[in-house]
Fold these 2 entries.
Entry 1:
Amino acid sequence: MGELIIGVAFVFAAYLVGAVPTAHIFGRRTGREIRSMGSGNVGALNALRSLGKAVGVLVFGVDTGKAALMMVTATFIGVPDWSMYAGALSTMLGHNFSVFIGFYGGKGAAVMSGISLVIVPYLALLSIPALLLGYVIFRSAFWGMMMTFISINILTVLTGQPVEQIVLCVVLTLLVGMTHFLRTYRTLWPAIKTLDFHRIGEIE
C-alpha cells in the first residue's frame, strides 16, 4: 500500500511540475502575455519568436530540465517502474494542459527531450544528427524535433529497449504531434493535404 501511495503521489507531483508554465512566467516578467503573441503557444518556440532568442533558449532549457528532474527524482526515490513511466506522461500532460493557465500550455517537445535524456540518454544523443538534418533540409525547428523523436523511436526498437520504454516513446511522440495538430488544425490541414512540408514546418 505504501508503494502504491508513493507511486500515485509521484505521478500527481509530476503533473504539477510539468504544469509550471515557463514561457508564460518569463513573458509576464517582461510585461507581456505570450498567449496573445505569435501562435499563442506557451512553449519554447513561440517564446523564441515572440520574446527573443535568449528567452526562447531559457524556456527550452527550463522545460527540458523540469522533465529531466522528475525522471531523476523517480530513480532517486525508487518509485515503481509503472509510476516512473506514468509520471513521464503526466509531466507532458501537465506541460501541454497546465492547470495554472486554464489547461493550456506548450506542445511537449522540450518535455520529451528532458525525459529522453534521462531514460534513454545514449539514444537521445545518437538522434542529434536527425535534429540537424531536419533543420538543414526544412529550415524548421518543428521538423528538426519531429525527426529527432522519430529517430529515438526507431532506435529504441533497433537496440532492443524494454517494451515499456518503446511504448512510452511512441505515446509521447504521438501526444506532441496530436497537440500540435489540434491547435493548428485550420492552417495545418491544408498544408498536409498538399504535402507542403516547408509550410507544415512553418506552422507553430
Entry 2:
Amino acid sequence: MKSSLLSPWLPCLALFAMLAGCSTDAGSRFASHDTTVEYYRVFDIKTDAAPQAVARAATDGIDRNVKDAVVATPAGVEATELPGHFKMADPASAAPGTAVDKSPTCEGAAWTAKAAPHVRGSDNMNMVACLFPYKSGYHLDMYAVFTKPDGGWLSWPRRVGGMMFGTPEKFTENTMLDIVRSIRAQTRAQVALVEAKPNLQGTPWLEGDVPLATAQTGTPSKP
C-alpha cells in the first residue's frame, strides 16, 4: 500500500536526490560568487581648441550614457610640462575595519566627472574621469570598477540577459569611448591610446562621431 502511494512521487524524489548529489559532489560547479571588474583607460589628446570647449565636449560625451554624473571644472588649473595622472587610493590609508575607497583622485585636472550609475547585471559601479592639461595637449584618464555575480544556477539566464539587454562591461566601454569620441568630434582632436586595462582592440574611438545615446549598449537598472 505504501509503495502505491509513493509511486507517483518517485520521479520527483529521484530528481531531488540528483540535485542533492550535485550540491555535495559538484557544488563548486554551481556555486555563485561576486567578481570585481576594473577598467582603466588613458588617452592622449592633441587639439587647438580652448580648454572650455574640450571640457564641454567631455561633459557631452559622458552625458550620452550617464545622466547623473557630477562634473567639475576647477579654476586656476595650469598646464604642466608633462601630463598629469590620477592617483589610486592607498589601501593602507584606510582605518582598520573600514572599506577601502578605490576611486582615484584627480588633483591637477581641469575637468573631472564622477558617477555611480545603476547598470543591469552589476553592483556598486563607480566611474571617474580626469582631464589633465599639459604643454602638448591633454591626457584623459578614466577608471571604472563594479562587482557582478558569476556562476550559480542563474549563470545561463544572466548570459541570455546580457545578450538581450547588454552587459556592464559593454556599458562601461561604451561610456568611456563616448567621452573620447565627443572630444574628437567637437574639437577636431588627434587621439591616441596610451594605456588600457583590459586591452582595447583596434581604434573604436575613431568611430561613431554622431551622438550615440540611442545606441547605448548597457541597460541601466531600476534604482
